[in-house]
Amino acid sequence: MSEAVIRTVTSPPGGLLASLDPLLREWLPRQRWFAGKGRPVTGFSLVAATELLPADSRLGLHHVLVRAHQQYAPAGGAAEEPGDCYQLLIGTREALPPRLAPALIGHLTEGPAAGRTAYDALYDTRPAEVLLEALRTRARVGELRFERAPDDDDIRAGLVPRLMTAEQSNSSVVYGDTFILKVLRRIVPGVNPDLELPLALAREGCPRVPAPAGWMTAELTGRSWVLGVLQPYLQGATDGWELALRELAKGEDFVAEARTLGRATAEVHTALARALPTVTLGHARARRLAEGMSERLAETARAVPLLRPYAPALRTAFTALADLAAEGRTWTAQRVHGDLHLGQCLRSPDGQWSLIDFEGEPAKPLAERRLPQPAVRDVAGMLRSFDYAAHSAGVRVPGWAESCRAAYCAGYAAAGGHDPRTDPVLLRAYETDKAVYEVLYEARHRPDWLEVPLAAVRRLSVPEPA
User: What is the crossing angle of helices 424-445 and 283-303, to 10°?
Assistant: First the structure.
């Protein structure tokens, strides 16, 4: 790699992690992508570390995979558990320039970088350049592997990087309006759908999802850990959430966009069904699906008292699904997006919609995120997203969400050959399950937003006429 001295270390020389420990205990819980909020960090254990730029140079750079240990409170009292594994790119400088002030982690007092300042290196141009150069050259750096799509020779050197500062559960660096590198923060070993599904769709020639141009992995303990994915940057594109709120603010409807977005979703589902195996959801699997939804409802009702009055009526959505399966009804399950909403969709200036971020719900185990599921799960997520947009805008437009929901389903039917509304039992079950998930999330993280899913809960607790 040009201008980079690279060596792998089994532990940071001189105990860099030990010197970072007190700083990370304060810094890590403040990050948007930290999953263990509300529980104290009690320590860290090193998973892997690679020195990308020497600690004693003007700019030091370490790639670190670290597991955060956290305190939790079981019935018998406080205890400690090994927490999630996080990917960090730690830069060190003698002093931070003002432009890097938002990246500050803290001042190191011991170890190989004693007397220097540690910071999140993704904010800095040079470390971001190191990552792109590694992808461009298919570098092998200790346990780190930098891959490039076999037929992609367009990764040019010299593209100027910039970190995207929007709130998100990972970190993204844009290179010269040509590529965007999504750096996963909370990582687990195994096949990550955020790389697996776009690669599968690229093989199918599906234009609705940007094809991966490169990816970062780590080979540890005999398993592969996906660390990041490089994809084309859709210059000038607007995400669906921002676009919907803009139209709402003007009092405009979103019907045409919703219909086109429905078509795009159906095209992606059709391509995924061709590219990867499908399964039949029969009585036993459907019963387990309904039981899982009922269990989540019970757990959420225990945690959020406001949900309890509606729980019996909501549970009927799941029992109706189980009853239908018991009568012999079956469904096709396939690979899906898994966390589809307006913010996961981009509209280009020419009006074309693309779907991004196939990671699924990060809080769920990787194996569960990779399970085939009815495509209506994604549809239900988008229908809930229209509802969120309608309730989040400063201007209320009567019937806005309802018209978007209808147009989206009509667009989906036109491209996919099946209208989700013709299977109301399955759709209601998934939409109810999603609303219950939202109640728990908002109660824990954004109490001011709790009324949005509660409004859906009130609606869903009154079944529509047959």
Answer: 30
